[in-house]
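Retro notes, structure queue

What went well: the backlog is down to a handful. What didn't: a couple of records were mislabeled last round, so from now on we paste the full input next to the output in the thread. Example, using Acyltransferase from Micromonospora musae:
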Amino acid sequence: MFLDDERSNRLRPAILNDLVGNLLNDVERARYLGLPETTRIRERTKIVSPENLFMGEHCWVGENTVLDASGGLEIGDHTSIGLNCLVFTHSSWLANMMLENHSGSDLIERKPVKIGKGCFIGGNSVIMMGVTIGDCATISPLSVVTKDVPAYSLVSGNPARVFQRYDQEYLRGEADRVRAENAARRARAEARGETQVWGAPAASRDDQ
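Corresponding output:
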C-alpha cells in the first residue's frame, strides 16, 4: 500500500504533521509546528515547506488556509490571515503549458512572499507569488492580490487595488473609539450582574 521511494518518504512526515495537528488546539498546533508560542494556527491549516516559513509573534491563521512557503514566506508580528486563504510562492503554470507537469519539473517557478507586521488579511483571499505586503495593510475578504501592497493601505477586489490609505493618527483614533465602546459595554454587563470571562464584551440589546 505504501510506496517506498524518495518522494513518498519525503512527503510522509508532512502528512503525519497534518494528522497530528488536527488533534491539537490552535496554540498547541503552532508549537508542534515549531512556530512562536504566541502564534495560533487554527484547524486544517496546511503549511507547504514549513522549513521555508518565518512567522513572527502574535500571529493568527484561520481554518482551511494554505500557506505555501516553498518559495520562501515571511509573515511579520501581529498579523492575522483569515479563513480559507491561499498564499502562493510557486506556480506550475508554465509546466502545464509546456506539457511538463511532472514531479520535479524545472519549469516550476518560485518567488518569495513577504507579509509585513500588523497586517489583516480577510477570509477567502488569495496572495500570489512574489508579492510584498507592507506593514499594517488590510486585505479585504475575497481579494486576489497580484502585486505589491503599500503599507497602511486597504486593498480590495480581483485584482486587488488600493481603496484607502491611513496613518498612525487614524489608527489611534479608531483604537480609542473601540476601547471606549468596549469599556461602556463591560460596565453595562457588570451592572446586569454578568461576568466577563475574556476578550471584548459581547453586544446586547442595551447596546443597540
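Agreed that this is the format going forward. Reviewer comment attached to the example: The mean pLDDT is 91.
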